[in-house]
Amino acid sequence: MNRSPARPLLGIVCCIRTFEDEPIHRVIDRYLRAPARFSDVDVVLVPALGALTDHDGMAHRLDGLLLTGSTSNLEPARYGGTQGDGPFDPQRDDTALGLAKAMIAAGKPVFGICRGFQELNVVFGGTLQQLAPSSVEHHAPAGVSLDAMFAHSHDVALAPGGVIAQGLGAEAICVNTVHFQGVDRLGDGLTIEATAPDGLVEAFSAQVGPAQVLAVQWHPEWDAETNPQSRWFFSALGAALRASAA
Fold first, then answer.
1. Domain containing 147: what range?
2. Is the separation of the CB atoms in 182 and 128 below 8 Å?
3. Residue stretches of the chain with pLDDT short of 50
4. Cα–Cα–Cα angle for 133, 176, 183, rounded to 5 degrees
5. Is 216:194 a contact under the CB 8 Å cutoff?
6. What is the DSSP-derived secondary structure letter of residue 76?
7. Per-residue model confidence (pLDDT) at position 246
8. Is-contact 104 213, C-beta < 8 A?
9. What is the CATH number of the domain that holds 15?
10. E strand or H helix at 23, and its extent?
11. CB–CB of 178/142 below 8 Å?
C-alpha cells in the first residue's frame, strides 16, 4: 500500500472491560485495521479516562475522531432518559461525548459507527430509544455465530442529494444491522442520510463550520475488505482528515 508522507492522526476511543479482575481499555481490532488500511491514516487509541483527559488539548493534537460500536449502551441519563438496557460504560460515555464536542468545536471531523452514531446523536441534543418490534428486525436472533450476526441485514433508503447517496451514486444500499437501540429524536442540526424500511434513522451528517460529521448505524468495518460501499465510508473518513490536517 502506498502511504502519504505525513498521514493524518485518527483518534479512536476505547471501551472499559474487565480482564483478570482489573479494568482494561480496549478496541476491537477491526475498528483499527479498516481506517488504517482504507483511510490511509495513523491510528491512536484514546483511553476512556473521562475527566482525567484534557479533551480540548487532545482535540488540537488529533486530526479526526472515530467513535466505534460496542456491546455497551449509553446511560439513559446522558440524553434525559430514565430507562435503558445495559451493560453501560460510563467512562466511555464521558470520554466519547466530551472529546467529540471538543473535536467539533476545534473544527475537526468526527465519524461514528453504531454506538458512535448514537453518541453523536446525543452530542447534538438528540435522544435514543430501545427498539420495539417492527417490520424490520434490527438484530439477529440470540445465540447465532458472530458471522451470522453480521450477515443479518436490511435495505436502507439513501436521502437524495445526501453525502452518502452522492458518494456511492446510489438510491439504496443493503447494510448489516446489529443494534437494539436507535434514534428517538434526531439531534439539532443533523441531516438524515439514510432510513430503514420502518422509518428508523440509519445515518446522518452535519457540517459545523469546518467540522464534518458523518455517522452510520451499521458496521462498515465488518466487511470493508469485500464491500466497496463499506470501504467508501473509510475513504470519506480519510478525505475529511486530510482536509482537516491541510
1. 9-245
2. yes
3. 4
4. 50
5. yes
6. G
7. 79
8. yes
9. 3.40.50.880
10. strand 22-26
11. no
Residue 10 and residue 66 in contact, taking contact as beta carbons nearer than 8 Å = yes
CB 63, CB 9: distance < 8 Å: yes
What is the count of structural domains for the chain? 1
Is the C-alpha dihedral spanning 30, 36, 39, 43 positive or negative?
positive
C-alpha cell of residue 136: 424490520
- Between vectors from CA 176 to CA 155 and to CA 217, what angle results, nearest 5°? 90
Cα 233 from chain centroid (whole Å)? 11
What the block records as the C-alpha cell of 18 is: 474487565
**pLDDT tens per residue, range 9-21:** 999 999 999 999 9
Cell numbers 500500500 correspond to 1
Cell numbers 470519506 correspond to: 236
Other beta carbons within 10 angstroms of residue 82's beta carbon come to: 6
Structural domain includes residue 4 = no
